[in-house]
Design goal:
There is one protein chain. With 183 residues, this protein is mainly α. It folds into 2 domains: 3-135, no CATH class; 138-183. The protein has helices at residues 3-17, 22-36, 42-54, 59-99, 106-133, 142-154, 158-181. α1 packs antiparallel against α2.
């Protein structure tokens, strides 16, 4: 098979078999893109993840655009994006056509309640993997913990922390890390 069908079906599988949004998809995307197909290195994936979270839109779509673009430019981006969004589009269309009348059905409610614990596990797994890959340890755990607390308790927009992180990274790598390497 060529790269275009591989891109489409890989992201179609990701879009079809992950529930719970972006964070629930991260570990599956990483396994497919980094481990299985080796389209991105671990470092490239972490960079793509950081950029995808910083951009508006759906995380999986943003990553699919970046992977498709890296492999085959605009056409690759379109193919990967179609693979990601097509399962959700079809599912929502089917729900709108057939299940809209049964939304308050107790069986359907129980099914969705049963899915919730699995979604929580799908969210926790990539958080731990990403923390490990980002080299979060006992010395620097205060940064993400403090940011999470400030967002949660004070209602500060995450946008400010993303911008502060970008500025902090530029300052650190341009000045502090450069001075340390020259010593």
């Amino acid at each position: 098979m060529g790269i275009y069908p591989d891109l489409f079906f890989t992201f179609f599988k990701i879009g079809a078999f992950t529930f719970g949004g972006g964070w629930a998809m991260i570990s599956i995307i990483e396994k497919e893109v980094v481990d299985k197909h080796k389209w991105l290195s671990k470092e490239e994936f972490l960079d793509a993840l950081a950029i995808s979270q910083s951009l508006p839109g759906i995380l999986a779509v943003n990553i699919s655009i970046m992977v498709g673009n890296k492999l085959r430019g605009t056409k690759g981006s379109i193919i990967a994006t179609l693979g990601t969004v097509l399962p959700s589009f079809v599912l929502i269309l089917l729900i709108a056509m057939f299940f809209s009348k049964s939304y308050n059905n107790p069986v359907i409610e129980r099914i969705f309640k049963g899915i919730r614990p699995a979604v929580v596990a799908l969210i926790v797994a990539p958080v731990l993997t990403t923390a490990k890959s980002a080299r979060i340890n006992i010395k620097n755990i205060w940064i993400p913990a403090g940011v999470a607390l400030l967002i949660w308790l004070c209602g500060i927009s995450p946008v400010y922390f993303v911008l502060a992180g970008g500025v902090g990274g530029i300052v650190y790598y341009r000045y502090i890390d450069k001075k340390r390497k020259h010593q």
